[in-house]
Each structure stands twice: as structure tokens, then as C-alpha cells.
Amino acid sequence: MSNQTIEAFDTAVLDAAAHLFVSVFNAPPWNDSWSDSSARTRLRDVVETPGFVGVALHQGQDLCGFAIGHTEQWFAGRHFLLQEMCVRTELQRQGIGTELIDALEARLFDVEQVYLLTDRHSPAHSFYERCGFRSARRQGVMIKSIETRPSDS
């Protein structure tokens, strides 16, 4: 990909990132139902988390991919939670995701482990394995649905 740059993720790209997020995650294999508004709120929440670190890949002025998350303290050191990552669908499988992971890792200081959540049966799982991730031995994801209540505000 010519004329590409990877830079720190800046809030100035939130709208473009939300649009990219929707186009990637509302398509197969994810088939989610994000709106630009809900995606922008999700990404803004991640960006505003203490310890935020993120990278964005541009080709010219076009945002083509990003990887964002935050560092957090663990009992024996710092960990990084990769919360969201996406690459424009037509540019996937061209090494851009790997470039984003590498650029992100280069910005992580005093971090001993990177972790993420992804669908075990998706192409993303295989991608992350190729990038050196492995399934956690001791930890699993647990969920509980609760009744939605309106806020008081």
C-alpha cells in the first residue's frame, strides 16, 4: 500500500473511525448492528480511558485501519487490553493488521502482556494467533445479561 502512514490515534479521526468500524463490523463475519453514533460513543469511551494507546493507518487522507486500547495495572506489572481493531474490508489480508499490531506494540512501554477478546470461530482469531497471541490458559470470559434500566440523568 503506497503513501501509507501509521500515527498515534487522534480524536480528530473519531468520526472516520466510527464510520470504518460500522462498515467492518456490520458486515460478515460479525454481522453486528452498529450505528455511526453507537460506534463513535464506543470508540470515544476507549479513547477517554486512562492509559489509552492507539494507532491509526492512513493512506493519503483516508483512514484505513486502527488499533486502540489501554494499559492497566496487574499485580506483577502492566498489561494492555486491545479493545478495538479494524482494517477496511477490501484491504484485509494484505499485512495491514500486522503492521498495526507492530506499531501499537512499539508504543507500549513497561507493558509485559497484551490481551484481547475475539470470537474463537472468526478469521480474526486465526489472525491474532499468527501475530503471536494464544488462548489464555487460566481465564475465560463470563457474561450475565441484566434488565436494562433508564438512567436518572
Give the topology.
Elements: E1 4-8, H1 14-25, H2 36-47, E2 52-59, E3 62-74, E4 77-87, H3 96-106, E5 111-115, H4 123-130
Parallel strand pairs: 4-5
Antiparallel strand pairs: 1-2, 2-3, 3-4
Helix pairs in contact: 1-2
Concise overview:
The chain is of the alpha+beta class and 153 residues long. 28% of the residues lie in helices and 27% in strands.
Structure, explained:
The protein has 153 residues and is of the alpha+beta class. The protein has one domain (4-117): Gcn5-related N-acetyltransferase (GNAT) (Aminopeptidase). 28% of the residues lie in helices and 27% in strands. The chain contains four helices and five strands. The protein has helices at 14-25, 36-47, 96-106, 123-130; strands at residues 4-8, 52-59, 62-74, 77-87, 111-115. Strands 1-2-3-4-5 form a five-stranded mixed sheet, with helices on both faces. Strand 3 and strand 4 (77-87) form a beta hairpin. Helix 1 (14-25) packs across helix 2. The radius of gyration is 16 Å and the shape is globular. The protein starts with a strand and ends in a 23-residue tail after the last helix. The mean pLDDT is 92.
